[in-house]
Write a structure and sequence with these properties.
Endonuclease, Chain A, 35% helix, eight-stranded mixed β-sheet, alpha/beta, 20 helices, globular, 3 domains, polyphosphate kinase like
């Protein structure tokens, strides 16, 4: 069957989150890093529920279950949702098993304790009550649900305490009523306690609030109490014809998002069944949408434990990124870029070089104009400040993506502040997110020549995430690249369209076909008996047409190594279809975010980097850019240091099997951790990737699969027939 050739995107995403959970269980990781990985799995699952699960429910409600074609696995929306729900319930059980059986006992051994109210010493209880009186109580609003007090509007992912109450008044009905207290979002979820020397003790905020509910509900008997949380549909529904502007439309929908339909109820497993049923009925949820938690309702808040427990020995050792040093004869970065390109691999290379490039553009009177895309950035970003400053004296154009998922509110504020500072602000092309990472400075150099200087990246202009996301930056003054970047900005601000943006590949115009052409070229070389190989690193691989081209290339004899962090619908290792394709995923200390694509091209190797994964949303639904890296030493670094390291990893790498399972890479030879190797290189080590000799891109193509019994239909040689969570 055709569907056997493709994995379901959503099941593939669940597999990715399982790989993150494996890191929380891995005792070779420092203990607090394991806690952080568990928190990340919960945050990931939140977003998946808000977007993907909500989308399934919405389509089913709208009747698409009967008319929508089957997904990659051949299932209708309701069938896929049923499978996902079962998978999610199993996953949640594994999360809490990890917390209760692995992390909590290990933390206690290291004198880090998360205590219940009844476990507190007198001194700790006194300290907690003082915090409650001063910080918590003024923010609480207890509600009793009755005819004069309707059920309160529970905000998306707000932690609440539900109570079953019986009035002590003689005239009152004996039927219990429901009480709801929202736990303040403004306060940390873990409260540090006074504890004996050497211990780090905490109590969960909701436990502290629960301990005082009798005071809040005087006149009632508290029959039971339990923390709960509701996740709501967080999709935006824009109606262009009713909006005066995209900005106003997004603002309106952000308000609506907070009130979206409930999708999931999380509640402590100790909750009384009567309370669960009352809440479930109120939120109009099916039983399968209720998740019982054997521990803290919101595990993502355990991230606070990582920051609050000051135990360096339980964390990764600190890493200091390598600073960019200019040549002795260069007066500034512009002088340097007139001589050669600069390639940076973050976070191993400091992001300060990119910040400095933008800041110098704002400060330098010789810089005439600045153009930049902003998808996500951070509060108090130096890049944002530089653009704001430059708006007073230069021609500054910024393309702000208002619909960057969950960053819309902050992006709206920044857009208005930029406009107030004199910056020309644009929102790209309606219907297409602007996801490309481009900055372009125009400068009148000392020789009187006006030149363009560009930054082309794979990651957002966010100095915070740049410390733990791996990304590639290229700084260049090459006319062919900077002129093409200028054309991309013209496309974003004026919707001009050209037949070619060479040497750039630009979505949604030339990128999708350009990728297919590059893959097909390798296939043709293989048919002619020439060397043919592809090494591609990305976050997700879902585009069906691209996968089909990879299958065809494999059948032609092309050696293909894919490094795909997250979702992958391609099935490697299928007899007669994808025997020459290997897929690996690396989950480690840093979030793998760089996109690097290498094509052997009969010995004339080409490498592209950029913002786009091989997914439909990137290839046809967004404005994206891939750029070539042509300078020989930078080309060599990408292929024989960076990509080679990821292909040699046998510590953090998992290999995708034909069945859809991921297994650890075999420990052949000495253990090799790619990220640790790249850190050592940044710190000055001159060690090389094991076995790397500078040969063709498939030098490391032998990172094999462990053989498994084929599943039904894998022997077939028949012809091949959202938007993802970020």
């Amino acid at each position: 069957m055709v569907e056997n050739l493709f994995f379901s995107r959503d099941e593939s995403w669940m597999r990715f989150n399982e790989r993150v959970l494996e890191e929380a269980l891995d005792e070779s990781n420092p203990l607090l890093e394991r806690v952080k990985f568990l928190a990340i799995t919960a945050s990931n699952l939140d977003e998946f529920v808000e977007i993907r699960v909500a989308g399934f429910l919405q389509r089913i409600e709208d009747g698409y279950n009967l008319v929508q074609p089957p997904d990659e696995g051949g299932l209708a929306p309701q069938e896929r949702l049923d499978m996902l729900m079962a998978h999610m319930h199993e996953f949640v059980q594994e999360q809490y098993r990890c917390w209760n059986e692995s992390l909590l006992p290990a933390l206690e051994k290291e004198k880090v304790r998360v205590l219940r109210w009844n476990e507190l010493s007198d001194r700790a209880r006194e300290h907690a009550l003082e915090f409650y009186e001063n910080e918590v109580d003024p923010l609480l609003t207890p509600v009793t649900v009755d005819p004069s007090h309707p059920f309160p509007r529970v905000l998306n992912k707000a932690l609440c305490i539900g109570l079953l109450l019986r009035s002590r008044r003689k005239s009152a009905k004996t039927t219990p009523v429901l009480g709801v207290v929202t736990v303040p979002r403004a306060l940390p979820r873990l409260i540090p306690l006074e504890s004996q020397t050497g211990y780090y003790d905490f109590i969960l905020l909701h436990e502290l609030v629960e301990s005082q509910v009798d005071r809040m509900y005087r006149g009632y008997e508290v029959l039971s109490k339990s923390a709960f949380r509701v996740t709501r549909n967080s999709n935006l529904y824009l109606q262009e014809e009713e909006s005066r502007s995209l900005l106003e439309s997004v603002r309106t929908e952000l308000h609506n998002r907070r009130k979206g339909d409930a999708v999931r109820l999380e509640i402590e497993s100790s909750a009384e069944e009567e309370m669960v049923e009352r809440l479930r009925t109120n939120f109009e949820l099916d039983p399968v949408q209720v998740f019982r938690t054997n521990g803290p309702v919101n595990l993502s808040r355990l991230m606070n434990l990582y920051s609050e427990a000051k135990k360096a020995d339980l964390k990764d050792p600190p890493f200091l990124a390598k600073e960019l040093k200019l040549s002795a004869k260069s007066s500034d970065i512009f002088d340097e870029l007139r001589k050669h390109d600069v390639l940076l691999h973050h976070p191993f290379d400091s992001y300060k070089a990119v910040e400095g490039f933008i800041a110098l553009g704002a400060d330098d009177p010789a810089v005439i104009s600045m153009k930049q895309t902003l998808y996500r950035t951070s509060k108090d970003s130096s890049i944002f400040r530089a653009l704001t400053q430059a708006g007073a004296t230069k021609e500054v154009t910024v393309v702000v993506e208002l619909m960057a998922r969950f960053d819309e509110d902050s992006n709206i504020r920044w857009a208005r502040e930029l406009e107030d500072a004199g910056v020309g602000v644009y929102h790209g092309i309606y219907g297409f997110k602007t996801h490309c990472k481009l900055a372009l400075l125009v400068r009148r150099d000392p020789d009187g020549v006006v030149r363009r200087y560009a930054h082309l990246g794979t990651g957002n202009y966010n100095p915070v995430t740049a410390r733990f996301y791996t990304d590639i930056s290229l700084l260049t003054s090459r006319p062919e690249l900077t002129e093409a970047a200028q054309k991309v900005f013209n496309h974003l601000t004026a919707e001009t369209e050209l037949d070619s943006y060479a040497p750039l590949l630009v979505a949604p115009l030339t990128l999708a076909q350009g990728v297919i052409d590059l893959i097909d070229r390798e296939a043709e070389h293989a048919r002619q008996g020439k060397p043919a190989a592809i090494v591609a690193k990305m976050n997700g691989l879902l585009d069906r047409r691209t996968v089909e081209s990879l299958y065809a290339a494999s059948q032609a004899g092309v050696q293909i190594d894919l490094i795909v962090r997250g979702m992958c619908s391609l099935r490697p290792g299928l007899k007669g279809v994808s025997e020459n394709i290997r897929v690996r995923s690396i989950v480690g200390r840093f979030l793998e975010h760089s996109r690097i694509f290498c094509f052997s091209n009969d010995g004339n190797e080409e490498i592209y980097c950029g913002s786009a994964d091989w997914m439909p949303r990137n290839l046809v639904e967004r404005c994206e850019v891939l750029y070539p890296v042509v300078q020989p030493n930078l080309h060599k670094r990408l292929r024989h240091e960076i990509l080679a390291a990821y292909l040699a990893d046998n510590v953090k790498a998992r290999l995708l099997q034909p069945s859809g399972e991921y297994i650890r890479a075999p420990k052949e030879g000495a253990p090799f951790n790619a990220q640790e190797f790249l850190m050592r290189v940044a710190e000055g080590s001159d060690e090389k990737v094991p076995g790397e000799t500078g040969s063709h891109p498939h030098h490391h193509a032998k990172s094999r699969h462990v053989e498994q019994s084929p599943v039904e239909g894998e022997e077939s040689s028949q012809e091949l027939a959202s938007d993802a969570v970020e």
